[in-house]
C-alpha cells in the first residue's frame, strides 16, 4: 500500500502546530513559576503524550526528570471503561517528589482519575496534571487540570501523538478524522 498524504484523511484541522507551540510555551512559563526552586518529575502517559512531553520538556528552562507509564483501559472500542491496567509502570519512586502528569487528552476523565489516585497512593509531595486537550462535553468525572492546552468539541481527534489504529500520531497539528476512514 502506498503511503497517503495525512491531510486527505481529515475533515478539519482543529489546532495548528503554531498554536500548540505557543500554548505550550505559556504553560511552561506558569510551570516554571509554580515549581521555582523545587524538583519536578514529568510523568508521561504512553503513547499519546509522547509529542506533548517532548515539546513541553524542551520548552522548560528547569532541569526536570521524566518518566513514563503505559496504561490500558479495559473495554472495547473508543469508550473508556475506567478500569485501568498498568502495562508499564514507572521506574521512579514517587515518595516526596513533585509529580506533573503529562497527558494528551482528557475525554471521559476516567483514565486520569484512576491514574491520579494510583500515583497519590505512592506518597509524592504533590501531583498535578498537564493535558494538551480536554473534551468538556464528554466528562464523566470532574478532574482538576492545573495546566490545560485547549478545550475541544466532543469529536474523535488525531495527530500530535493521538492515533486512530496507531496511525496519525505523527501529524503535527490536531485534526478531526474523516468518517470514510472509520468505514
Ligand atoms: P478517558 O475517556 O479515560 O480517555 O478520559 C482518555 C484516553 O482515551 C484516548 N482518547 C482519544 N484518543 N483521539 C484519540 O486518538 C481522541 O479523540 C481520544 N479521546 C480519548 C486517549 O488515549 C486518552 O488518553
Ligand atoms: Mg492517552
UniProtKB/TrEMBL annotation:
A Pfam family: Pribosyltran
InterPro entries the record matches: HGPRT, Hxn_phspho_trans, PRTase-like, PRTase_dom
Positions of the Phosphoribosyltransferase domain: 18-164
Chief subcellular location: cytoplasm
Cofactor(s) listed: Mg(2+)
Subcellular localization, as worded in the UniProt entry: Cytoplasm
Any one GO cellular component localisation term in the record: cytosol
Pathway: Purine metabolism; GMP biosynthesis via salvage pathway; GMP from guanine: step 1/1; Purine metabolism; IMP biosynthesis via salvage pathway; IMP from hypoxanthine: step 1/1
GO process annotations (BP): GMP salvage; guanine salvage; hypoxanthine metabolic process; IMP salvage; purine ribonucleoside salvage
EC number: 2.4.2.8
Molecular function terms, GO-annotated: guanine phosphoribosyltransferase activity; hypoxanthine phosphoribosyltransferase activity; magnesium ion binding; nucleotide binding
Keyword entries, A-Z: Cytoplasm, Glycosyltransferase, Magnesium, Metal-binding, Nucleotide-binding, Purine salvage, Transferase
Catalytically driven reaction(s): IMP + diphosphate = hypoxanthine + 5-phospho-alpha-D-ribose 1-diphosphate; GMP + diphosphate = guanine + 5-phospho-alpha-D-ribose 1-diphosphate
SUPFAM superfamilies, alphabetized: PRTase-like
Family recorded in the similarity comment: Belongs to the purine/pyrimidine phosphoribosyltransferase family.
Protein name: Hypoxanthine phosphoribosyltransferase
Classification lineage: Bacteria, Bacillati, Actinomycetota, Actinomycetes, Micrococcales
Amino acid at each position: 500500500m502506498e503511503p497517503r498524504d495525512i491531510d486527505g484523511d481529515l475533515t478539519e484541522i482543529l489546532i495548528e502546530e503554531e498554536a500548540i507551540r505557543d500554548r505550550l510555551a505559556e504553560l511552561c512559563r506558569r510551570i516554571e513559576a509554580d515549581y521555582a526552586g523545587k524538583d519536578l518529575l514529568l510523568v508521561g502517559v504512553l503513547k499519546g503524550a509522547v509529542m506533548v512531553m517532548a515539546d513541553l520538556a524542551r520548552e522548560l528552562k528547569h532541569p526536570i526528570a521524566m518518566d513514563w507509564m503505559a496504561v490500558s483501559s479495559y473495554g472495547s472500542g473508543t469508550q473508556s471503561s475506567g478500569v485501568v491496567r498498568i502495562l508499564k509502570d514507572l521506574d521512579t519512586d514517587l515518595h516526596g517528589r513533585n509529580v506533573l502528569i503529562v497527558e494528551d487528552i482528557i475525554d471521559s476523565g476516567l483514565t486520569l482519575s484512576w491514574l491520579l489516585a494510583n500515583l497519590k497512593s505512592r506518597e509524592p509531595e504533590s501531583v498535578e496534571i498537564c493535558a494538551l486537550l480536554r473534551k468538556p462535553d464528554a466528562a464523566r468525572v470532574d478532574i482538576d487540570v492545573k495546566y490545560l492546552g485547549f478545550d475541544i468539541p466532543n469529536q474523535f481527534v488525531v495527530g500530535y501523538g493521538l492515533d486512530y489504529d496507531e496511525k496519525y500520531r505523527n501529524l503535527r497539528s490536531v485534526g478531526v478524522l474523516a468518517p470514510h476512514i472509520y468505514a
